[in-house]
Amino acid sequence: MRPLYLAAGIICVGFGAVGAVLPIMPTVPFLLLAAFCFARSNPAFEKRILDHPVWGPQVHDWRDRRAISRRSKLMAIGAMSVGAVFTWFTLGEPWVYVSLAILAISGTWIATRNE
Predict the structure, then answer these.
(1) Which pLDDT band holds residue 19 (cuts at 50, 70, 90)?
(2) For residues 71 and 28, is the Cβ–Cβ distance under 8 A?
(3) How many domains would you assign to the chain?
(4) Is it the case that residue 43 has pLDDT exceeding 80?
């Protein structure tokens, strides 16, 4: 199982890296999954995620208190809003409704988490 967890962790880090530059894709959820996988396969990689100066505190907040900082909430909801506007301008109807539904559901969930 260790090689599967290691492979999944590496893939999740890759998705997290993509999410760091694309506004429509999250970063921290993928890093949470990566940390979970690395805890079962390679603790040194897990430690690197937890010790990262930007992403580590967010992973710790979620693990310890199931919390998302206010700044992170605003950035996540803002990025999803930008994605919805982008969808409206590029794809139009009916795809913008899918994007708005994701924004409403995910944004509400994010907004209601502890800070």
Answers:
(1) confident
(2) no
(3) 2
(4) yes
CA 84 – CA 58 distance, rounded (Å): 25
| CB within 8 Å of 98: residues ≥ 6 apart | 87
Do 75 and 98 belong together in one domain? yes
**Which residues have a Cβ under 8 Å from the Cβ of 55 and sit 6 or more positions away?**
16, 27, 28, 31, 49
Q: State whether residue 72 is helix, strand or coil.
A: helix
Say if residue 45's pLDDT is above 90: yes
- Clarify whether residues 82 and 101 are in a common domain: yes
Expressed as residue numbers, the domain containing 2 is 1-66
Q: Are 58 and 69 in contact (CB under 8 A)?
A: yes
Same domain, 48 and 72: no
Question: What percent of the chain has a predicted confidence (pLDDT) above 70?
Answer: 98
Query: In terms of domains, do 2 and 58 share one?
Result: yes
CA dist., res. 64 & res. 90, Å (int): 40
Residues 11 and 38 grouped into a single domain: yes
Question: Tokens 């990689």 — which residue?
Answer: 45
